[in-house]
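testing teh design pipeline on a random one, pls ignore if ur not involved
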């Protein structure tokens, strides 16, 4: 019996070190004593089903202003696509966005992450505010896939992108699964931290404020773009979200950019809403990516199952 265990162990160890096989099944045969009487041969089959190859494609989509939006389509076997939206002064390569795309891939869900106009590789100049303009960028992306006979199963946004996906759901009612990660409820808040206490007086006087970090120019805020943000009312927009639209809000309890208290306000006014707080997580969920991915992917999979069950 001891010899049998050593041989079996050696066999499995050698298999694990071998190069990728051309076939998907191995059959290993060895003897097992049965009640210490006769010795019979029993076959054991190790199944190693091939994993579908993941394909990534660079896709360029024009928005309504003729600007090219650049994104990465990660094909993972599903016809339906999850669209991932980045946050303020960020891009499709943000850790939280890339990690979610990888987790969706593991769940065999295709995804598309892209840069809003003026960000990352996309055309255009960066603009402060202009939330509704980014909603229209997202609209162009969704329409592109619909015209390609691809369904969009969910839209996911982080930070400013979280507000954008909620605003989209309030205006267009064609996506029934929305995920808001660290989105801000009151857009009048958080401005002073970036522009200074006297920002409104300065911008009214000069027409703009140039934001610098460590003495280096980062971006310009015009009076028009500031007013655009101040006039964007998340409360009124969220009241327009359909009851059939399932919304998940995920927020870190230690978020110092957008207070976690904003989540309770979303929960009160969005009719079909689920809230998940990740303890000790910051705005970007640093060190908590696994929990974030698990919550988001499971929510999307559950809603997909419900939709398919209803369709049947």
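output:
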């Amino acid at each position: 019996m001891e010899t049998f265990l050593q041989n079996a162990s050696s066999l499995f160890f050698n298999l694990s070190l071998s190069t990728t096989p051309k076939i998907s099944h191995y059959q290993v045969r060895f003897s097992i004593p049965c009640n210490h009487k006769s010795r019979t041969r029993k076959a054991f089959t190790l199944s190693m089903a091939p994993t579908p190859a993941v394909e990534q494609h660079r896709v360029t989509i024009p928005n309504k202003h003729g600007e090219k939006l650049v994104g990465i389509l990660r094909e993972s076997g599903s016809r339906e696509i999850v669209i991932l939206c980045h946050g303020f002064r960020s891009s499709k390569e943000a850790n939280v966005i890339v990690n979610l795309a990888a987790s969706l891939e593991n769940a065999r869900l295709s995804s598309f992450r892209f840069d809003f106009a003026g960000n990352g590789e996309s055309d255009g100049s960066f603009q402060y505010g202009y939330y509704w303009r980014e909603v229209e960028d997202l609209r162009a992306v969704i329409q592109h896939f619909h015209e390609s006979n691809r369904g969009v199963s969910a839209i996911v946004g982080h930070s400013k992108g979280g507000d954008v996906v909620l605003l989209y759901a309030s205006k267009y009612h064609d996506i029934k699964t929305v995920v808001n990660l660290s989105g801000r409820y009151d857009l009048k808040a958080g401005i002073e931290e970036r522009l200074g206490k006297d920002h409104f007086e300065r911008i009214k006087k000069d027409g703009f404020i140039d934001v610098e970090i460590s003495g280096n120019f980062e971006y310009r805020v015009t009076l028009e773009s500031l007013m655009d943000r101040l006039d964007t009312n998340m409360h009124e927009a969220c009241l327009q979200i359909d009851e059939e639209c399932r919304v998940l809000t995920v927020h870190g309890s230690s978020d110092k950019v957008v207070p976690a208290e904003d989540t309770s306000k979303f929960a009160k006014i969005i009719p079909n809403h689920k809230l998940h707080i990740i303890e000790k997580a910051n705005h970007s969920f640093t060190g908590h990516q696994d929990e974030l991915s698990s919550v988001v992917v499971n929510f999307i999979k559950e809603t997909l199952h419900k939709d398919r069950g209803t369709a049947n």
